[in-house]
Amino acid sequence: MMLLLLSSLYVRSQNNLPKNVTAVLEKAGKNRGELEKVIQRYNQNKADSLKLKATYFLISNMDIHSSVDYYWTDGKGKRIPYNEMDYPDFVSAVKAFEEIKPKYENIKPVPYTYKDIDTIKTDFLIRNIENAFAVWKQPQSKNISFTDFCNYILPYRVGSEPLQDWRSVYHEKFGWIRDSLKTQSTEDALNYFAKDMRTWFVNTWDQEQRKEPLPHLGPIQLLNRKKGNCDDIGNLMTYTLRSQGYCASLESVPYWATSTGTHFFNSTFSSEGELVPFDVSTANIKIDNFSREPSKVIRITYAKQPDVLANIIDREQIPPGFMRNKNYMDVTANYWQTGSLETSLFTIPSQPSIAYVCVFNGMKWKPTWWGKINKGKAKFDNLCKGAVFLPAYFVNGKIQAAAYPIASGYQHQLTLKPDLVNTRNVTIEEQDKYLKFRLDKKYTLYYWNNNWIAMGEKTFVEGNSSLVFEKVPKNALLLLIPEYSQGKERPFIITDNQERIWF
Question: Which of 250, 330, 352, 360 has the most crowded CB, counting CB atoms within 10 A?
Fold first, then answer.
């Protein structure tokens, strides 16, 4: 009779589920029952009302999340019975793999993706919720609101890493830090975490590339392998802090605006509720200022965000990268001076509704933000100052210039339309930390006019201290590339008084 009553209550509660929860359940197919059991678990007792809300939060945002993992096959495509996670540590896993390899020909890794709504089981989700609530009751978490708890402690994943049951493992492994800091500040906790991590985890950035098709290591893999890149370190710190009841998020600089590469770091909140950005891979853990301009600073969230581009246009119309996702926040203004750019656009057939703005990174224009097109113009908001941007279209899977580059200074903006009539000779001298000429090496100067156009080639010879290029268009964005280029050159402009400004 009691079972019948509970079943009846649950059926009625199903009719009262939030619409966003129902929408996700309808997508879950055969796995729907696993998610519904979690709702049923927390829908039977008023004392579990917050856990029920937490369940709704997780399920309503679950449909946008998935894992990227891989398995091994032989030359015939047959799956090999090997899984790194079946071994107690990474050394054992590698040893076993080396013993297996000679038994198969043409062994190779095969990546695959699986969705959370198709695979998450009842017990996994309940354990995550129970463990998260347990640490939320700890002294260091007493001032954390339910909203912040849901966003920065509760989530069972960070990115697209393989799903692994990590909370209890991390809670036990790093519990000594929590116990020693019951009366200490969040900043002290960060220093403890960083000091501990450096004793056992190796930062592989610029040292080695992961050979497997695995964008992100899973949380247990991080503990077993004891090494990873900046992205992995950011994930590791997110799991660690959340397991001990501290808020944590992963922040990303998709591209540096005045340098090459990307960056990942973390943020948390102080006991006073202030944002505390930090990077445990650097000497100064707390981030007070960046050393260079970020194209954007993006906070990766578990929850869907209402104002993202992927809610406006189809994913295929968006350049590959973070803008295709629905779970990020633009937090650039927390880290750098920002402003808006507005420009007229080149007319093209079938003009799209969205334009993009790019930064020059790795010798390519990389799309980093977007703006709506209105009457042939586009406005791009919240861009860092001190960088040069190229407005662009994304057409047939390719970026193409939509306007002339715009130098966004800290006081002024300058549209860099090259003056092909009024030209001048340009003298380029060496500059500490930026440019050092090599004897007998060739250097080519380019200017931007919807493409990089070569102005000429010069060889640096003994006795010279500079290079001189003739008939260079005024008001042009320039790029000097040596024959030994490593793809790290930066664009620059030369003012009327021959001052060179790098971007």
Answer: 360
